[in-house]
């Protein structure tokens, strides 16, 4: 916990003390008391800056870094690297959302695109790190990315109590393990529930089986959590802090995005709507309880966003 508290002294204030507030219209719609932890009101529109600020602050001997990214980590690393004079290379899949790719470039990073999914990008990033002899930043595996995300948990402690629920989008696991660690250390009565799409279930299946389970494909609009190969060390941490891990349908994710817009006035990318989707699919479980959902990112292509949130799309409540 001392390392996590100390991280706040290193992370740029733009990423700290993000808004946390009760959203009554959304709560009335869902049948529970809903609080939103908003991680999009910062320079990179996601929580990832907390981790990259910590990573880059500890790279005194490095002049260049490389990472694989679905889009948000790449933006954050480019932003943090630029302010510290680092040469940043980001490897992403060619079909990643254009808005994420454009913003990575706008922060001055070199962007290399690969065919295939995130795992192909990860393999290429590992190759580049070895070939160039530069530092590879791996989301969730680098403890700094987890400790940075864990500062969100510190900001939640004063607003939650025993019996409350915190819903956390689950991808590689940095946010889930970081926030979960803080909550279980300082507020053990709070239920930590991780949420993942049914189309990208690898980490949830691994949590349920208590061993790494890989999948042959990931098929979801929630590109930010579409990994197929869980990291064993991260799974071990997740098993220690998560009370449950649930899978949600694509239609529920789209509905969650629409509700965040209609009832909270928020533009959320699909991964950021996973918490709302979880409540939609199991209203009885959450009825009457205080639920905190972390809106973890807002980087989504406008055309795709309009398509996902169209009132004619399936799943409209």
TrEMBL record:
GO biological process: isoleucine biosynthetic process; L-serine catabolic process; L-threonine catabolic process
InterPro entries linked: Ser/Thr_Dehydratase, TrpB-like_PALP, TrpB-like_PALP_sf
EC number: 4.3.1.19
Cofactor or coenzyme needed: pyridoxal 5'-phosphate
Superkingdom of the organism of origin: Bacteria
Stretches assigned to the Tryptophan synthase beta chain-like PALP domain: 14-297
Alphabetized GO MF terms: L-serine ammonia-lyase activity; threonine deaminase activity
The keyword Lyase is assigned to this record: yes
Pfam families tied to this protein: PALP (PF00291)
UniProt keyword annotations, A-Z: Lyase, Pyridoxal phosphate
Protein name as catalogued: Threonine dehydratase
Organism listed in the record: Paractinoplanes abujensis
